[in-house]
């Protein structure tokens, strides 16, 4: 097995959002077994290639258990039976990922090309890691496979010396984005290969696969390396060809026709709160209690009315409206939806109805234990928030039936997310405290005065977005009585009092980019 310190660091055409490497990254002096906690060994066999370290250094174990439980190798089980079970599950995931990727990247790809591309990705992942990624080891901890003195991460062996941001941000830790990141690199060589003298034709499939892999393993200049029978890395090309021709991974795939239990398409787009895999519609008529995705919104059908949220990450909050029959989402078109009644829901109102213990955006919380600060709710660790810290909530997410909640906060100059328990144990993780106790920031606290800085002033309304009462001029200051957030962008409104009259002013967005300083500043 060759691990990927030789993964190229020149780069590629952009593919799916946020996954393609950035051109010009230089080598990073990452130490051996970087962020490797509780390292364990394994064996040179499928699912358990050594070594493995705690996965939590780069992402949330809870995310793995929610999204990838079927493709976690369990050391506690009988080895051969577990390998066959695991192999069937992972085979389905890798095949689905390969096919989804190429169809999105190259819609004109023929059925033959999709088939050969899928074979290439199956063989590459088998060679790089013996199909090893997540594993619960004998110490009971969730691990992630690490190779090449710990520098190669996971299934596609993304190297932290040449792809440090992708590793640190959790892209290499997340199984599907790990595969997609590797495919970004492989695809560049796949497209170059037909023009090379060692391939000569787009349908010379075996030569094309071998060339793409040589470049994946050795860098762009090595695309025809496999034709040389001598040289430092000739044995790598020989080993890969042996795996490709022998399809050794098939010996552990008990069910080659298994459907993936992982929401590959959603996860490949670097989304996290994906739920069950997407399903094709079984009927043109809306099904009661089912979830539908339409142009990024997610809707629940109740009495043939579509109740819709503008962000799929809030899907679990739709349970406040009635029973949800399945977490799997059905894709519909706007034209299909146009035939039915639609009611738009606001995430802040609906999610707090779904879970009364959820703490609102703009409120202050005090954490009751030290909690990892992550770049995204499940992503790479960027710090630790000590027990007792007081923070202001700037965003939230609720996930799955247990109502796991995550809050976006600022701590130590870093903006990230903390896990704050599920509905049953939320108060043991964080509790709401007086807003005035939170550190001062661009988001006002109740009791703060804000100065209007927008050149045209700000409209003063009876409710957020409601009836216009008057305009409040630039330079005037007003005391905040309430902080209100609305919509998926976390639009902020402040309730202020002007004379004897209370009303609301718009104060900007928190997502995707904050605009508060353009409107009213504490």
Summarize the structure.
By secondary structure, the chain is an alpha+beta fold. Helix content is 23%, strand content 23%.
Structure description:
This protein is an alpha+beta fold. It is 23% helix and 23% strand. It folds into 4 domains: 52-252, Lysozyme, CATH 1.10.530; 272-345, OB fold (Dihydrolipoamide Acetyltransferase, E2P) (Beta Barrel), CATH 2.40.50; 364-437, SH3 type barrels, CATH 2.30.30.40; 449-521, SH3 type barrels. The protein contains 10 helices and 26 strands. It has a 7-stranded antiparallel beta sheet with strand order 22-21-25-24-23-20-26. Strands 1, 2, 3, 4, 5 and 6 form a 6-stranded mixed beta sheet that branches. The protein has a 5-stranded mixed beta sheet with strand order 10-7-8-9-11, with no helix packed on it. A hairpin with a 2-residue loop joins strand 17 (404-411) and strand 18 (414-419). The longest helix has 27 residues, at 79-105. The model is unreliable at 1-25 (pLDDT under 50).
Please specify the SSE layout and strand pairing.
Layout: E1 52-54, H1 61-67, E2 72-74, H2 79-105, H3 111-129, E3 134-136, E4 142-147, E5 152-153, E6 158-159, H4 164-168, H5 175-192, H6 205-218, H7 234-246, H8 264-268, E7 291-294, E8 297-302, E9 305-309, E10 329-331, H9 334-337, E11 341-344, H10 347-354, E12 364-367, E13 371-374, E14 381-385, E15 390-392, E16 395-399, E17 404-411, E18 414-419, E19 430-433, E20 449-452, E21 458-461, E22 468-472, E23 477-486, E24 491-498, E25 501-509, E26 520-521
Parallel strand pairs: 2-3, 7-10, 9-11
Antiparallel strand pairs: 1-4, 3-4, 4-5, 5-6, 7-8, 8-9, 12-15, 12-19, 13-14, 16-17, 17-18, 20-23, 20-26, 21-22, 21-25, 23-24, 24-25
């Amino acid at each position: 097995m060759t691990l990927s310190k030789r993964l190229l660091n020149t780069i590629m055409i952009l593919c799916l959002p946020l996954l393609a490497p950035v051109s010009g990254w230089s080598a990073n002096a990452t130490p051996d077994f970087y962020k490797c906690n509780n390292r364990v060994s394994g064996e040179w066999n499928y699912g358990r290639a050594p070594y493995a370290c705690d996965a939590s250094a780069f992402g949330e174990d809870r995310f793995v258990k929610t999204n990838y439980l079927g493709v976690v190798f369990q050391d506690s089980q009988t080895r051969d039976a577990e390998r066959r079970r695991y192999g069937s599950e992972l085979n389905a995931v890798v095949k689905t990922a390969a096919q989804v990727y190429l169809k999105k990247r190259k819609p004109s790809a023929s059925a033959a090309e999709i088939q050969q591309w899928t074979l290439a990705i199956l063989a590459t992942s088998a060679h790089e890691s013996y199909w090893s990624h997540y594993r619960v080891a004998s110490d009971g901890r969730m691990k992630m496979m690490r190779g090449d003195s710990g520098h190669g991460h996971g299934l596609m062996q993304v190297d932290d010396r040449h792809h440090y941001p992708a590793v640190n941000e959790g892209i290499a830790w997340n199984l599907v984005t790990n595969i997609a990141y590797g495919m970004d690199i492989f695809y560049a060589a796949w497209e170059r290969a037909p023009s090379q003298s060692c391939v000569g034709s787009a349908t010379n499939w075996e030569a094309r696969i071998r060339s793409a892999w040589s470049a994946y393993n050795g860098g762009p200049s090595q695309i025809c390396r496999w034709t040389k029978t001598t040289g430092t890395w000739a044995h790598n090309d020989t080993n890969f060809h042996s795996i490709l021709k022998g399809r050794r991974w098939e010996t552990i795939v008990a069910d080659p026709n298994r459907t993936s239990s992982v929401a590959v398409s959603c996860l490949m787009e670097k989304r996290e709160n994906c739920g069950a895999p997407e399903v094709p519609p079984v009927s043109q008529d809306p099904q009661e209690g089912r979830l539908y995705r339409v142009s990024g919104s997610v809707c629940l059908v109740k009495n043939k009315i579509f109740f819709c949220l503008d962000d799929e990450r809030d899907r679990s909050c739709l349970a406040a409206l009635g029973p949800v029959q399945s977490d799997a989402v059905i894709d519909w078109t706007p034209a299909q939806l146009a035939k039915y009644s639609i009611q738009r829901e606001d995430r802040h109102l609906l999610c707090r109805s779904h879970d009364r213990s959820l703490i609102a955006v703009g409120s202050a919380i005090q954490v009751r234990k030290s909690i990892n600060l992550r770049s995204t709710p499940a992503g790479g660790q960027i710090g630790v928030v000590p027990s007792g810290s007081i923070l202001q909530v700037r965003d939230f997410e609720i996930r799955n039936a247990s109502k796991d909640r995550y809050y976006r906060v600022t701590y130590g100059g870093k903006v990230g997310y903390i896990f704050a328990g599920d509905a049953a144990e939320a108060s043991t993780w964080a509790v709401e405290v007086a807003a005035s106790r939170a550190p001062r920031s661009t988001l006002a606290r109740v009791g703060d005065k804000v100065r209007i800085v927008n050149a045209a002033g700000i409209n003063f309304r009876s409710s957020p977005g409601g009836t216009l009462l008057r305009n409040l001029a630039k330079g005037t200051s007003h005391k905040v009585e309430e902080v209100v957030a609305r919509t998926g962008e976390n639009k902020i409104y402040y309730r202020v009092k002007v004379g004897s009259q209370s009303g609301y002013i718009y104060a900007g967005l928190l997502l995707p980019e904050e605009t508060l300083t353009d409107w009213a500043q504490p």
